[in-house]
From TrEMBL, chain A:
Name by which UniProt lists this protein: ATP synthase epsilon chain
Top-rank taxon: Bacteria
Organism expressing this protein natively: Limimaricola cinnabarinus LL-001
GO molecular function: ATP binding; proton-transporting ATP synthase activity, rotational mechanism
Assembly and binders: F-type ATPases have 2 components, CF(1) - the catalytic core - and CF(0) - the membrane proton channel. CF(1) has five subunits: alpha(3), beta(3), gamma(1), delta(1), epsilon(1). CF(0) has three main subunits: a, b and c.
Automatic annotation (TrEMBL), chain B:
GO cellular component: plasma membrane; proton-transporting ATP synthase complex
Protein name, UniProt field: ATP synthase gamma chain
Subcellular location: Cell membrane; Membrane
InterPro entries reported for this sequence: ATP_synth_F1_ATPase_gsu (IPR035968), ATP_synth_F1_gsu (IPR000131), ATP_synth_F1_gsu_CS (IPR023632)
Source species: Limimaricola cinnabarinus LL-001
Record family assignment: Belongs to the ATPase gamma chain family.
GO BP terms: proton motive force-driven plasma membrane ATP synthesis
One Gene Ontology molecular-function label: proton-transporting ATP synthase activity, rotational mechanism
Annotated TM spans: none
Amino acid sequence: MADTLQFDLVSPERKLASVTATEVRIPGTDGDLTAMAGHTPTITTLRPGLLQVVHQGGTDDYVISGGFAEIGPDSVSVLAERAHPRGEVTQEVYEGMVEEFASAHRDAQTRFENEPGPVDDTAKLLADMVAVGTHIGLDPKQSNF
Amino acid sequence: MPSLKDLKNRIASVKSTRKITKAMQMVAAAKLRRAQDAAEAARPYAERFDAVMAGLASSVGGSDGAPRLLAGTGKQDVHLLVVMTAERGLCGGFNGSIARKARIRASELLAQGKTVKILTVGKKGREMLRRDYGQYFVGHVDLTDVKRVGYANAQDIARDVLGRFDADEFDVATIFYARFQNVITQIPTAQQIIPAHFEGGEEADTALYDYEPGEEEILADLLPRGVATQIFAALLENAASEQGARMSAMDNATRNAGEMIDKLTIEYNRSRQAVITNELIEIISGAEAL
């Protein structure tokens, strides 16, 4: 069996990557998982996080804001709502991404005043996004957390 | 008969009109290319998305726990028509044909005794529908300041639509837009987005997959995104169609201006000749009188 898999990363606006990878680390909603060749076919949703692709030329990192991944024995397709190569994520871009979740969270707080469910969901997403920033060394500027 | 000076002025003005339409045609051609590239770039996402959704929908769809976005509200009484048109005119029949399609659907639904609500995207469609269906308008999305439609625009519209759905404002949502076929042909299309409808799902295909979290959770998470994806695809198609329609409309206008200039030039030359002949006659008859 081949020990590589075809990796595709697409966002609604463009195709970001299509490479042959040996290993893909995916931030799944229920926890991180690493896909390698021969993985059980799986479909998982994603949380905001860092997607890492290991291939012959090294490791590529992408910051994604959610979406889902389709994992097969010899291919991984990640469909991300918003994705940027790590190098493109400047403080400004990152703040934009954080703000998106922060406003969703504020929105949920006002809309679902007596329902903790949706508010907690958005809070978790925001926390995930903030965690990404800490991880890659950018300041999330979210003090009220 | 117009004077020579009048004719000269008219020729000059038609010439400058031709310059403008020619320029607009070229701008539209350049924008069309970009719009087509954008539509092309969006296709892989939409295709994968649809494939996964179709599989999920067919395996979960039958059960009682199917999300409302897929199963519907159980009624078909209130219809939301999302009419997507351009922000500008001068693009031939583009806006008109979409508005007409929406108008026909609206009158059909009203005849069946259903309630119609209209959400307009783009100023032109709103202007066209205002007179007959103005009382059904529930909202408007303005994209005047948007130079290139992005996924964020689609998300905004989707959020608006989904918010209304959650608030039980409607049962069925349909989007109206023009599908781009080529520069000459754009097909006005009506597409139902809520309850969601997916084509080409093969159950055998998806039974193989593990789902994390469960199928229903994934479906509930993905359905709202599906709405945004469909709206985004429609916006891109619309953008390409608009530029295509404008390009051919301006091509026609440029040609018509050319014909007009030829006609006016002939008229101008004729009347100039008539003036000269007149003067000659006067001189000759004057000389003869001596």
